[in-house]
Amino acid sequence: MRKVILGLAVTLDGFIEGPKGEHDWCFTDQDYGLAEFFAGIDALFIGRKSYEIAQQYAENNGGKIVSDIPDATEYIFSNTLKNVKDGAVLISGDSITQVRKIKEQPGKDIWLFGGASLTDVLMQEGLVDELWLSVHPILLGRGKPLFREREKPIPLTLLESKTYETGLVSLKYRIEKD
User: Fold this and answer.
1) Could you give all domains of the chain from N- to C-terminal order, each with its CATH number?
2) b/e per residue 133-154 (b: at least 16 CB within 10 A)
3) pLDDT for 98-113, tens place per residue?
């Protein structure tokens, strides 16, 4: 079965973007393991807001939402969008059932690219298998937090950690299922 991997940059105090949506604190000076990560995925899960932001970025960057990303099927989760770009798949309605079906399909792993709401729903349903967090050495103090409050703890097992000379720490965890 394919894994869903939440992979993103986060500040040491747990924010994924600044108070005005800024990401200018993210390091882009080297690969930080992205090439290896990209080699293991062939699909992305993207929430509506993240999709719209990514499309604006892609318009100015050769059509890519992330530089150097390989061709991958983009699954856009929205109950309000009626159309998405060519080649992308719009997921609406019972997204949980659809995610389960996609995970059962043959292929590489799936990158949970973004969307706090989408992440929260998939985490609550136990559909995220791994976390790959690139912890940046900065304290923003405010912004959008990575995780919302939970009713119960989610146990994790550390799979890998790597420290870069810039102070960025890459952490990979498996989410332990009940």
Assistant:
1) 4-154+171-175 (3.40.430.10)
2) bbbbebebeebeebeeeeeeeb
3) 999 999 999 999 999 8
